[in-house]
């Protein structure tokens, strides 16, 4: 069985704690690895390494940092298949989906390759006579990243490239459920030539998270995970004086207007609700059917669901893999029970699907006539369950989104440009899709939701990432006016 360790100061390091956590292959239910869980001393060692590295890394030239980032980008591209294989082995997502995750991760490294442009600063010449003012952005020091199980490679790479490109050093605490892909991306970082200590990985659980949140040498924390933990991380980290950005859970709505292209809307709903077994923070979990679009939409989604191939992510034909753990699979199935008991119509029942072996598979479910008081609507299910809420008007759909506590993504499907434009203004969410179900911004924009989907004022990656990982320094300088200078520089005297 694979022993999975920390990466501290450029080397693989065993834990000082004897606590461990099992890692499973969700497609088979077999334990494939044993993960070392960090002690406080392990976290302290990682932070000490990052702090020592920061002393020199912050002054390394922009040109050198960019060269290393390019080298890293190339290594991640070369190893994309291996990263994807590790994602499938421990997360369960199908290989094509895993490849998509790596591709989106690479976008963030490529953005950070352009750090020279992002860090240019600004200059006001002759703000007053003989006075120039210029602003630069300086790194913070040691920053930490705490990441979820559902995008084990991409989410760390939302953080690390920008943080390091800006001159910070980094301690990553990946999810304990699928730690091998994030470990590989950290090993490639070493191979690219970044000095030891610039990126450290501590494997662990709450013990490691709590130590990072209180450690006096950690200056900022980026977190992505569920809303209760995001809230806890935000409160605890800021209480200890740190800069914190904490992205939480979601319940994303897709409004379908009567004039929508039904085939496009149904294709989008199926891929956005069931892709990656619904374990995406941008998954569509509620289709809001406006007026008489409901019946044809439900029929079109149902037809597509019947053709979905569910199986191990390593099978080329699989379109959806297992859920992350047995307990989570059972919890999701429990929501289907609760929805049916509360009066929702079970159009397609994922509990009926049968699978060979001990993998954590569940079929796909479509619940119609869902109302906002049902737990299938109020809770983040994070599984392959799509709820249809029927409303009479566009405004009712918008009001539903506004009254929902989460605000990650929201989408509209329509052929009406005016309605789409109105929706981009009305939607109470941080990321809006127009005929696009999962509007994850490209790497040169930034990612983040509203309301209970994000705590802190700065979203992740892109320009906002650069902002989060730097602090401004403004320099005001005065030099004698050449005209009044004791030395005659030959300037005219009347300016
Ligand atoms: P999680 O909140 O359980 O775990 C996230 C991280 O927090 C992990 O590293 C975990 O080890 C740590 N953690 C867990 N419990 C903790 C505790 N009690 N104290 C301190 N640390 C703790 O989330 P998850 O199940 O790994 O991921 C799924 C969740 O993440 C979903 O809610 C999903 O919507 C959300 N998510 C959000 C985004 C986004 O961008 N908004 C992106 C991906 C996932």
Uncertain parts: none
The proportion of strand residues reads 15-25%
Head-to-tail CA distance between termini? 78 Å
Mind telling me the CATH superfamily name of the largest domain? Aldehyde Dehydrogenase, Chain A, domain 1
Structural domain tally: 2
Shape: globular
Specify Rg, calculated over alpha carbons: 25 Å
Contiguous helical run count: 16
Main β sheet profile: 7 strands, mixed
* CATH architectural grouping of the largest domain: 3-Layer(aba) Sandwich
Please name the CATH topology of the largest domain: Aldehyde Dehydrogenase, Chain A, domain 1
Bound molecules: nicotinamide-adenine-dinucleotide
Q: What is the structural class?
A: alpha/beta
What is the spatial order of strands in the main beta sheet? 15-16-17-14-13-19-20
Helix proportion of residues, in percent?
Answer: 25-40%
- According to DSSP, the number of beta strands is 23
Arithmetic mean pLDDT:
96
């Amino acid at each position: 069985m694979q022993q999975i360790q920390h990466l501290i100061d450029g080397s693989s390091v065993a834990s000082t704690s004897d606590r461990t956590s099992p890692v499973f292959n969700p497609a088979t239910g077999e334990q494939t690895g044993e993960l070392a869980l960090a002690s406080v001393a392990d976290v302290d060692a990682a932070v000490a390494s990052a702090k020592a590295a920061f002393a020199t890394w912050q002054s390394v030239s922009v040109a050198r940092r960019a060269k290393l980032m390019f080298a890293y980008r190339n290594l991640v591209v070369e190893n994309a298949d291996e990263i994807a294989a590790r994602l499938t082995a421990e997360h369960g997502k199908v290989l094509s989906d895993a490849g998509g995750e790596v591709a989106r991760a690479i976008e963030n490294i490529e953005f950070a390759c352009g750090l020279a442009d992002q860090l240019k600063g600004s200059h006001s010449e002759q703000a007053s006579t003989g006075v120039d003012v210029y602003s630069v952005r300086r790194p913070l020091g040691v920053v930490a990243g705490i990441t979820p199980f559902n995008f084990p490679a991409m989410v760390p790479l939302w953080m690390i490239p920008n943080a390091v490109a800006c001159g910070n050093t980094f301690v990553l605490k990946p999810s304990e459920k699928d730690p091998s892909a994030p470990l590989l991306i950290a090993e490639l970082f070493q191979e690219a030539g970044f000095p030891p200590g610039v990126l450290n990985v501590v494997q662990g659980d709450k013990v490691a998270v709590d130590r990072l949140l209180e450690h006096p040498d950690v200056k900022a924390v980026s977190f992505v995970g569920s809303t209760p933990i995001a809230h806890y991380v935000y409160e605890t980290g800021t209480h200890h004086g740190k800069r914190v950005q904490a992205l939480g859970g979601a319940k994303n709505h897709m409004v379908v207007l009567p004039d929508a292209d039904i085939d496009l809307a149904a294709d989008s709903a199926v891929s956005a609700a069931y892709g990656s077994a619904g374990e995406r923070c941008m998954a569509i979990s509620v289709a809001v059917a406006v007026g008489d679009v409901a019946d044809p939409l439900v029929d079109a989604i149902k037809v597509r669901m019947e053709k979905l191939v569910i199986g191990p992510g390593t099978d080329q034909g699989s379109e959806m893999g297992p859920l992350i753990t047995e307990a989570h699979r059972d919890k999701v199935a429990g929501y289907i029970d609760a929805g049916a008991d509360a009066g929702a119509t079970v159009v397609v029942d994922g509990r009926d699907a049968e699978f060979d072996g001990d993998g954590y598979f569940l079929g796909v479910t479509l619940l119609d006539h869902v109302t906002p008081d049902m737990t299938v609507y109020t809770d983040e299910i994070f599984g392959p369950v799509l709820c249809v809420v029927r409303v009479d008007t566009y405004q009712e759909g918008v009001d539903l989104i506004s009254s929902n506590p989460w605000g990650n993504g929201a989408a509209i499907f329509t052929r009406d440009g005016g309605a789409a434009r109105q929706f981009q203004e009305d939607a109470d969410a941080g990321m809006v899709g127009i005929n696009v179900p999962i509007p994850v911004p490209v790497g040169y924009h930034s990612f983040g939701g509203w309301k209970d989907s994000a705590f802190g004022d700065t979203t992740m990656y892109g320009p906002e990432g650069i902002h989060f990982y730097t602090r401004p320094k403004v320099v005001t300088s005065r030099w004698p006016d050449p005209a009044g200078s004791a030395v005659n520089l030959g300037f005219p005297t009347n300016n």
